[in-house]
Design a protein that fits this description.
This protein is an alpha+beta fold and 156 residues long. 32% of the residues lie in helices and 28% in strands. It has a six-stranded antiparallel β-sheet with strand order 4-5-3-2-1-6, with helices on one face.
Length: 156
């Protein structure tokens, strides 16, 4: 019993079982523009979306307004085989797991399953959400602050 108590105390002190927290801050000159667009998205009467896309490579990360929450989303299907392990490592560091979602093709009616790294956050966490998104662009796609980002607004 004493050994179990010591093991538990050791695990507790080291933080065993806790999610890793991202401590790196990512910056980009378009960060204020992204924040403005996300705030606009949240004010739309329907659940809008925003896609941040690199102008040259077309690599992207997307957001949805999910009932007033900011849902960050990166579909697994958008990644190359070399980008997948980078995404897995990066999102694990952020405490975001790969989730499977069942959906339906609106044209064919066929059901399908898609996998995405996704996380919903309240609006007061907008800066952290943007940081996660920029980190994904930098860490997974190897983009930098010099890449021009195109914002695609799903409500205009």
């Amino acid at each position: 019993m004493k050994t179990q108590a010591l093991l538990f105390l050791f695990a507790f002190i080291l933080g065993c079982g806790q999610q890793n927290k991202m401590t790196t801050t990512y910056n980009h000159p378009q960060k204020p523009e992204i924040q403005t667009a996300l705030n606009e998205m949240l004010k739309q009467p329907t659940n809008g979306f925003l896609i941040i896309e690199d102008s040259k490579t077309k690599k992207f990360i997307q957001f949805y307004n999910e009932n007033g929450l900011i849902l960050i989303d990166l579909p697994k299907i958008a990644l190359t085989k070399d980008e997948y392990p980078l995404a897995k490592k990066y999102f694990s560091k952020c405490g975001i797991n790969l989730k499977q979602v069942e959906s339906k093709d609106p044209e064919t009616g066929k059901h399908f399953i898609c996998s995405s790294w996704t996380k919903a956050s309240p609006p007061d966490q907008i800066n952290n959400t943007i940081n996660i998104a920029l980190g994904a662009l930098f860490e997974i796609y190897a983009l930098t602050e010099t890449n021009s980002l195109h914002l695609i607004k799903g409500w205009k």
